[in-house]
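Sat 14:20. Reprocessing the chain from the morning session after the first attempt stalled halfway. Input below, unchanged.
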Amino acid sequence: MSTPTWRGRLGLMGLLVVALLGAATPAQATGGPAVPVKIVAPQPYQPGFSIMSGFMDVNGTIFFAAQDDTHGEELWKSDGTTAGTVLVKDIQPGAGSSSPSQLTSFNGKLLFSADDGSHGQELWVSDGTAAGTLLVKDILIGVASAITSTPTIVVSGGRAFFVADDGSHGRQLWVSDGTPVGTQLLKTINIPTPGPFGYWPTNLTNVSGTLFFTTSDQGSSSDTLWKSDGTTAGTVAVKVLPPGFFESSMVQHLTAVGQKLFFIVWVDLWVSDGTSAGTIKLMDRIGDSAFTSTAFDGAFI
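Finished this time. Tokens:
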């Protein structure tokens, strides 16, 4: 991990101040200039300065990843006070970093991925205490990492979805209720050998309790839109989307709007109600300078 510049360090500290204002009391959040809740590392211009990322609010407690000279990058929490800004657990003991990522609020607890030095990057859960910060399941046995590609853990319909590789099925969609028994491979999707763009499940998006995602078919240069209710039988292909210019349909910007999913296929705006017949192209974006991806994000996110 590269060391941030001094400007980057100050910017990261500023992010912590802003994030923690939401957890502070009204008296703390108003009536004066913002001040740091806590300086985690004592030497802000030295290589050991804390690196903070992944802020997540779980019932008023802010969780984040931070690094100091003693513990490496680990899981911290804050209630908006100096005394309440503390290390949750040194998951990878000593100076090593467990690199907590994909922090997600789930059923009153924190779900995230971390590497304890023995199991690789796997799924963890925390209730905010050291004793309650536990490995959920060692999906890929040994020090290799099971969770390597998922941009985030997505909660949908009371379940947590993520992509993992157990060493036998490739990178597939998994589901968890936060317990070892309830963390399972959801469905084995026959995906060809991954290419340069990746052909495992991507674009995980919650739409009113239904998870939508896409996979790519390297043979036909097309992507397939899928949906899942959290069961194997309920994880089904919705529609094969038209091929794009490259090795996939270039599906992006999946966005929930009410009960429907809006997304872009290469250059076209599409919408889906979760059925094949209801997954249709709305308009062609080519030549319409007013309809850019930025405008799409601003309109629907």
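DSSP finds three helices and 20 strands in the chain.
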